[in-house]
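Throughout our pipeline, every protein is held as a single compact record rather than as scattered files. Nothing more is needed to write down the fold, since each code stands for a local backbone conformation. The record that follows is passed on verbatim for readers who wish to inspect the format.
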Amino acid sequence: MTHHDALPQPRRRTLETSTSIPTPWPDLTDLAELTFRHKVGIIAQRGSREAKVGGDIAVHAAKAGVPTLLYTGHPPNEQPDWLAIDETPNPTPAEVNARAQRRINGEKPSFVVIERYERLSPTPPPYREWDDPIDDPDEPESRADQLMWSVREIRIDLPLLLTTVVDPEPQLSRRMSTWLHIDHPAMVMTDVCKPTLVVHRTSPQTVDTRMEVDPHEYRTGTRSSLQWTPLNLRQP
């Protein structure tokens, strides 16, 4: 093959640490602020179009030239050059940390997405630097606690997006703790992701969100309406 016949290489997008990962919806990009060392959670109703938000964002970022690692049980139909898909059913934090060092087209990932993050498996003991010395060693650790620690053990400097779903229709006028059990993965997410966004479609073009937790307390509970046309309804 001659030099002129060589296939073009995919173009990587160079991101500053303060640059947000692009999503298909600019309003969501601004609200989520997926930047360096930032863990963001998105919660949607099971079976809704928004429930596949993790894959949609991963594909969009990869098409924009962002080397993206997607953990999913349902690979998207479109798989751009900058997208690496891992279908490990129950990855451990150590596996995620290691996989985030593997190159995509010669470049390290710049973004990690874990759909249905409750699939994470806790790292076998001995583990964790953050054990509370007053914890009762004879009391078994709850699945919610295991999930919380599993996310905290994902020690990467990259933007990290976690998604999960709820069965009841999201009630954005009330805190999640009033309509979900305290150990539900969506509730655990509020302890480890800042922000955690609950989303619910209100029209063919808009989605309402509630910010369940944020580093700035005054934003907790804030509701927003985002322009968010489902991708499969967009004109080509």
Notes: DSSP finds five helices and eight strands in the chain. The CA atoms of residues 20 and 30 lie 8 Å apart. Residues 1-7 have pLDDT under 50 and may be disordered. The two ends are 35 Å apart (CA to CA).
